[in-house]
Amino acid sequence: MRKKVIFNGVALPYLLLLPQLVITAVFFFWPAGQAIYGSFLREDAFGLSRDFVGLENFADILSDPNYLGAVWNTVIFSSAVAFSALGVAIFLAVQADKAIRGSGAYKTLLIWPYAVAPAVAAVLWLFLFHPQIGLLGRFLNGIGIPWDYKVNGNQAMLLVIIAAAWKQVSYNFIFFLAGLQSIPRSVLEAAAIDGARPTRRFWTVIFPLLAPTSFFLLVVNIVYAFFDTFGTIHALTQGGPGQATTTLIYKVYVDGVQNLNFGASAAQSVVLMAIVIALTAVQFRFIERKVHY
């Protein structure tokens, strides 16, 4: 029998919520408010003077070819990272969920990469694909495949996608594995008795039951690709070559920290925040309809 907790008054519930409310206000609402306020101003590089310019910062960035290029880079990068990380993770989770010898060790090893910092993960891939000292980079050049991500924009984009997706696979793997282990074995056994082969069982039984997990991870991975990949890009390519790997989050850093254009950087932050909120709302509005809980 379930018990219902009843509070005598409102003081205790609000007190219990207070730490989370303070964290949200300090680390989200206050910075977001500062970014919105700063997007309407134009400051000098030393912050000694500022002028209210209204929507001029937004007009400037939306007419800037470099910013529009960063938007396109972000579309390619975020889509590739999210879907490749989800695809590899669900494949590994299905394999690890099988009754095989040493499955516990495999699961532990597959989870470990999530503990690696983004910059460290980027350095690991740098030492693999560096054209002069990287094991795989030297191998590719040795067999006649020209590889130098420092001068080839497509190769640089491919490298940062691989590095960012590899970092996120472990996170997705944890949730997919938990979802697989929550599926009743009797359901899978019934499908097998009915003659469904492993591939058919996956698409008709397993994947539909993983829909809530997949939807949650889709939202998380899109947010990750937009915001949490700055360290990977900065350590690997620094947005180059020729801004080929400059995404929206990295453009905010370049204009705000390197070029000291605080108004444009704040405006880009507001646009980026609006894009992510809109994408999340669209996912909940349209994609969640296909999710069966």
From TrEMBL:
Signal peptide interval: none
Protein family per UniProt: Belongs to the binding-protein-dependent transport system permease family.
Matches recorded under SUPFAM superfamilies: MetI-like
Top-rank taxon: Bacteria
Transmembrane segments: 12-32, 70-94, 106-128, 156-180, 201-227, 266-287
Membrane topology: Multi-pass membrane protein
Keywords: Cell inner membrane, Cell membrane, Membrane, Transmembrane, Transmembrane helix, Transport
InterPro entries noted in UniProt: MetI-like (IPR000515), MetI-like_sf (IPR035906), UgpAE/MalFG_permease (IPR050809)
Keyword NADP: no
Function: Part of the ABC transporter complex UgpBAEC involved in sn-glycerol-3-phosphate (G3P) import. Probably responsible for the translocation of the substrate across the membrane.
Entry keyword annotation includes Cell membrane: yes
Xref: Pfam families: BPD_transp_1
Cell compartment(s), UniProt: Cell inner membrane; Cell membrane
Assembly, per entry: The complex is composed of two ATP-binding proteins (UgpC), two transmembrane proteins (UgpA and UgpE) and a solute-binding protein (UgpB).
Species of the source: Falsiroseomonas bella
Principal location class: membrane
Gene Ontology cellular-component terms listed: plasma membrane
Protein name: sn-glycerol-3-phosphate transport system permease protein UgpA
All residue ranges annotated as the ABC transmembrane type-1 domain in the record: 71-283
Gene Ontology biological process: transmembrane transport
